[in-house]
Amino acid sequence: MKIQEQDLYHGAALTQIVESTSFTALNRDPDKYGLYVINHDRRVLIKHAAGPRADGKYQFTFGASDRQLLSQHVADPNKTFVALVCGQHVICGLNLTQLGSVIDLAAGGSQWVTVEAPPGKQLRTRGSLGDGPLVAVNAFPSILLQ
After folding, report:
1. Are the C-beta atoms of residues 115 and 132 closer than 8 Å to each other?
2. Which of 1, 29, 86, 138 has the fewest CB atoms within 10 Å, i.e. is most exposed?
3. Contact 34/46 with Cβ under 8 angstroms?
4. CA 48 vs CA 26, 65, 94, 124: distances in Å
5. By the 8 A CB rule, do 97 and 129 touch?
6. CA angle, corner 91, sides to 56 and 135, nearest 5?
């Protein structure tokens, strides 16, 4: 089977998850490529950006199907996450509440999130709704396994 570029980035995130001492199970969600069920009760949608834009930020697009899928889980936002794989540099993990602070899960059209990874500092997030949370570089995968 041919290896697709996205598989390499998803593999980076999944490896960090399964190497965690809190990990017990991994299943793929049959509804969407890139959506996984971790430890039987948590969902993570993995998105990737192969490299930064000219301004050094990594950009991720959330289409209507992504947001619809995620919005199904807003009742329990601490069990649904996104893993934003920033090239070969870092993975930014956000829970659904944090993601909802930068994009509107109910809006039409595409929404975007950028991640900036300045050396020696926390990850900076921004999205269609404006500035988002600062995220510790080492927050992933522990954010979804707590």
Report:
1. no
2. 1
3. yes
4. 19, 16, 14, 16
5. no
6. 80
Length of the chain counted residue by residue: 146
Show Cβ contacts of residue 100 under 8 Å, excluding neighbours closer than 6 positions.
74, 77
* pLDDT tens digits, 29-53: 887 888 999 999 999 999 999 889 9
Quick: pLDDT tens for 55-83.
Answer: 999 999 999 889 888 888 777 888 999 99
CATH of 5-145, one of 1.10.238, 1.10.10, 1.10.3470, 3.40.1350: 3.40.1350
Can you read off the two tokens belonging to residue 95? 């829970």
